[in-house]
Design a protein that fits this description.
The chain has 155 residues and is of the alpha/beta class. It contains five helices and five strands; from the N terminus they run βαβαβαββαα. The protein has a five-stranded mixed sheet, with no helix packed on it. Strand 4 and strand 5 form a beta hairpin. Helix 4 runs antiparallel to helix 5. The mean pLDDT is 86.
């Protein structure tokens, strides 16, 4: 737990096996995260970045960056410029490109448990194509009922 630590700089290069990380109530920015080697924490499943100063800058998206942490299940980014309100998570999730992978383990954003319908809406917004989002829905459901579809990951 590193909350309320007045953190401005991070380096997780030596902490790759960390599973839970609370960095809430600090001075963290998108640059801090991009420079932190956080994406190398391949066991990280719970991440709290709430109450910081995180906002996307041109060419650098927090969602895109965090998508590379395939073990991530729970994320809290509320009260950041990128997600100022608890229910503004949908806009953020459109930048989370890993969600298109039906094997994506991500489950919850700002305390909201993602449903299949949420995932379909996110993919529809990402792709601007209803057929792609409906195709994802079919693949997702097939992946849950049949091991024969375990090798199919995305639309």
């Amino acid at each position: 737990n590193l909350s309320y630590s007045e953190i401005k700089y991070l380096d997780f290069g030596s902490f790759r096996n960390i599973e839970k990380l609370n960095l809430s109530h600090n001075y963290i920015t998108i640059e801090t995260i991009l420079d932190s080697n956080l994406c190398e924490c391949n066991k990280l499943s719970i991440l709290d970045l709430s109450y910081n100063n995180i906002q996307d800058i041109e060419g650098n998206s927090l969602g895109n960056y965090l998508s590379s942490i395939t073990s991530l299940k729970y994320l809290n980014i509320e009260k950041n410029p990128i997600c100022p309100k608890i229910n503004s998570w949908m806009s953020f999730m459109t930048t989370f490109i890993g969600i298109v992978d039906v094997s994506c383990k991500f489950q919850s954003i700002n305390g909201h448990k993602l449903t299949l319908d949420d995932r379909v809406k996110i993919i529809s917004r990402q792709s601007h194509n209803e057929e792609i989002s409906e195709g994802y829905k079919c693949l997702y459901l097939l992946s849950k009922i049949s091991t024969n579809f375990s090798s199919i990951h995305s639309v």
